[in-house]
Design brief:
Layout: E1 2-4, E2 6-8, E3 11-13, E4 20-25, E5 30-36, H1 40-58, H2 62-78, H3 80-91, H4 95-112, H5 115-118, E6 123-128, E7 131-139, E8 142-146, H6 154-165, E9 169-173, H7 180-191, E10 199-201, H8 206-214, E11 218-224, H9 227-239, E12 243-247, E13 252-256, H10 262-274, E14 284-289, H11 292-307, H12 328-343, E15 347-350, E16 369-372, H13 379-382, E17 389-392, H14 398-407, E18 410-411, E19 413-417, H15 421-430, E20 435-438, E21 454-455, E22 458-459, H16 467-472, E23 474-482
Parallel strand pairs: 1-5, 8-9, 8-11, 9-10, 11-12, 13-14, 13-19, 14-17, 16-17, 19-20
Antiparallel strand pairs: 2-3, 4-5, 6-7, 7-23, 12-22, 15-16, 18-21
Helix pairs in contact: 1-8, 2-4, 2-7, 3-4, 4-6, 10-11
Length: 499
């Protein structure tokens, strides 16, 4: 059985705590590896080593740091197939989806190549008599990222790329459910020329997380995961004086207006609702058609599309639409929420609980599930399901649909499908949600814009990637200078007597 350890000071090292977690193949339900869970002492030692390596890296010309990012991009492209296969094997994603996971992270690394420009300060000459003022953006020192299972390449890359490009050392605590790809990324970063000690990958559980929170050397923390844990890390990290950004759960609504292209809307919902088995914080889990005719027509369009979805392991080919959930516990939770929807009176149009695949009976699969006539008090509406379940909530008017999205405690992403520009413009302006799609179901911004939700989906005042990442991973130092006159009066050709 393979044992996965940590990446410390430029090499893979075994864990020393004696504690391990199982890493499953979600398609078969079999344990395929064990991953070490770090102790507080192991985490603290990794931080100390990173702190020793960081000053030299922070003083390195930003253009030289950017060259490491350039080479890293080349290596990511070179090893795309290898990374995708490892990701799919542990997470369960299809190969095309796994490549997308890597690609969206790679795009942030491409943005980081612009670090020399992004790190420029400001300058004012003659701010006063003989006085100049200028600002410098300097690294925080040692920072950390705590990343989730559902994007084991993309989100670590979103965190490590800007942090390292800004001159910091970075401690990555990835999910213990799919740890192979983060270790592979560290190997590629070293091959790209990153000096040892600047990127430490420490696998672990809550003990490692708490060690990061309590370590006084760690100056900043980025987290992506569930809202309860986001709230815990944000409050405890801020109380310790650290700079913290945390991104939590979501309940993303897609409003479908009567004038929308129903085929386009149905296609969008199927991809956004069931892609990656619904294990995405930007997945659309609630469809809100406006008007009874719109709702009936949308269901009519959705059912045949959902019936054609191909569910299976990533090894079944690139035409598989989605694979298993990540663990047996995740599967059990999703099936339990489906049962609660039935018990609480929602109309179960399609039931995926009994999905079975020959040869993969022990895999963590849930078939595509569709509910209609869902109401806001139901568990399947209130909770983030994180599975292949789409709930339709009928609205009588645009204002009622808008209110549903605005009243929800989460504010990660939302979308509206309409052909009316005035409606779309009003929706984008008024809705209290961080990322908006207009005829785009999953409005994930490109790397040069920022990603972040509102309300209980985001904690902290700066978003991920884009310009905000360079603000988060640096602090501003402002210098006011005045130089005495003398040299400009001309040269002197004799030794001046001592006073």
């Amino acid at each position: 059985m393979q044992e996965l350890g940590h990446w410390i000071d430029g090499k893979r090292v075994p864990g020393r705590s004696g504690r391990f977690a199982d890493v499953y193949n979600p398609a078969t339900g079999e344990v395929q590896a064990h991953v070490a869970l770090a102790s507080k002492d192991e985490l603290d030692a990794a931080v100390a080593s990173a702190a020793a390596a960081q000053p030299k890296w922070g003083a390195t010309n930003p253009q030289r740091r950017a060259r490491v990012m350039m080479e890293f991009v080349r290596l990511l492209n070179r090893d795309m197939d290898k990374l995708a296969e490892a990701l799919s094997r542990e997470h369960g994603k299809t190969i095309p989806d796994a490549k997308g996971d890597v690609q969206r992270g790679l795009e942030v690394i491409e943005f980081c190549i612009g670090a020399p420009h992004l790190l420029k300060g400001e300058f004012t000459d003659s701010a006063g008599p003989g006085i100049d003022m200028y600002s410098m953006r300097q690294p925080l020192g040692v920072v950390a990222g705590i990343t989730p299972f559902n994007f084991p390449a993309m989100i670590p890359l979103w965190k490590m790329g800007p942090a390292l490009a800004c001159g910091n050392a970075f401690i990555l605590k990835p999910s213990e459910r799919d740890p192979s790809v983060p270790l592979m990324l560290a190997e590629l970063m070293q091959e790209a020329g990153l000096p040892d000690g600047l990127l430490q990958v420490v696998n672990g559980d809550k003990e490692a997380v708490d060690a990061i929170l309590d370590n006084e050397t760690v100056q900043g923390i980025g987290f992506v995961g569930s809202t309860p844990i986001a709230e815990y890390i944000y409050s405890r990290g801020c109380a310790a004086g650290k700079r913290v950004q945390c991104f939590g759960g979501a309940k993303n609504h897609m409003i479908v207006m009567p004038d929308a292209d129903m085929d386009q809307a149905a296609d969008a919902l199927v991809g956004a609702g069931y892609g990656a088995a619904g294990e995405r914080c930007m997945a659309i889990s609630v469809a809100v058609p406006v008007g009874e005719k719109t709702a009936d027509k949308l269901i009519e369009k959705l059912v045949p599309r959902i019936e054609k979805l191909k569910v299976g392991p990533y090894t079944a080919g690139d035409d598989v639409d989605y694979g298993p959930l990540v663990t047996a516990d995740a599967m059990k939770r999703v099936k339990g929420l489906i049962a609660s929807g039935v018990e609480q009176g929602a109309k179960l149009v399609m039931d995926g609980r009994d999905f079975a695949l020959q040869g993969y009976e022990d895999g963590f699969f849930v078939g595509p599930t569709l509910f209609d006539n869902v109401t806001p008090e139901m568990d399947i509406y209130r909770q983030e399901i994180f599975g292949p379940v789409l709930a339709q909530v009928r609205a009588n008017s645009y204002e009622e649909a808008l209110k549903l999205a605005m009243d929800n405690e989460y504010g990660n992403g939302t979308a509206i499908f309409t052909r009316d520009g005035d409606t779309a413009r009003d929706f984008a302006a008024r809705v209290n949600i961080g990322m908006i799609g207009i005829n785009v179901p999953i409005p994930v911004p490109l790397a040069y814009h920022t990603f972040g939700g509102w309300k209980k989906s985001g904690f902290g005042d700066l978003n991920q990637h884009g310009p905000d990442a360079f603000r988060f991973y640096t602090r501003t130092k402002t210098v006011t200078s005045r130089w005495p006159s003398g040299l400009k009066e001309g040269g002197e050709f004799h030794f001046k007597a001592m006073d």
